[in-house]
Write a structure and sequence with these properties.
By secondary structure, the protein is mainly alpha-helical. It has two domains: 110 residues, no CATH class; 69 residues, no CATH class. It is built from seven helices and three strands; from the N terminus they run βααββααααα. Helix 4 packs antiparallel against helix 7 and helix 6 packs across helix 7.
Length: 202
């Protein structure tokens, strides 16, 4: 999907049809989620009173399968154009942001675009994987002292002898991933950076 792609419908009748269709899909999604969740809960309750280990193992397997189905359902919903990835509204036109792999309503996009990556933006990593891991390990220990700025992160990078030009590029990537201060780097940017670099986290 092209970054920044917009889906806009101007005809009033088509807008009403779109809204009604989204509501039908939304209700179906909720019903399926409720059905799977209730079935999972039912099996969990039955398993508590089950003494046969073989039957208990089968129940555990069924619970695992239901959990996987629920996760796939949530993932599909999160990536779909059905609702805004921020405010969850079913109404309105949409814009796709590749950096988050989500669709957003145009209102949320306009109100928050200063915090989001520019269209067609790509993360840049002038640090090696080892340096990135070291940076996050150090920051994780100090992020609790965050003063709603990037002072701790900048000091860590300087202590690691990272060039100022590379610091700027790296911090810009963290910022576009929601790392607007030291603690937000750990909360928002850290998972995305790890995924980008293929680094497993515990």
């Amino acid at each position: 999907m092209k970054d920044g792609k917009r889906i806009i419908i101007r005809h009033p009748t088509l807008r009403v049809l779109r809204k009604n269709l989204r509501e039908i899909i939304h209700r179906a999604d909720i019903q399926e989620h409720r059905k799977l969740s209730n079935k999972k809960l039912e099996i969990k309750r039955s398993r508590r009173n089950q003494n046969d280990e073989n039957i208990k193992a089968q129940m555990t397997f069924k619970i695992k399968n239901l959990s996987e189905k629920l996760n796939k359902l949530r993932a599909s919903r999160n990536k779909s154009i059905l609702s805004c990835g921020l405010c969850s509204t079913l109404e309105g036109d949409r814009i796709y942001l590749k950096g988050f792999n989500k669709w957003y309503c145009l209102k949320c996009f306009e109100e928050n675009k200063k915090y989001w990556p520019p269209i067609n933006w790509k993360p840049q990593y002038p640090l090696s994987k080892e340096q990135v891991v070291e940076f996050f390990l150090r920051l994780d220990k100090l992020a609790g002292n965050c003063q709603t700025n990037l002072n701790i992160s900048k000091k860590i990078l300087s202590d690691m002898d990272i060039k100022k030009s590379d610091q700027k590029i790296f911090l810009e990537t963290l910022y576009h991933y929601g790392g607007h201060c030291d603690c937000e780097i750990m909360l928002n940017a850290h998972p995305n950076v790890m995924a980008d670099l293929g680094i497993e986290t515990e």
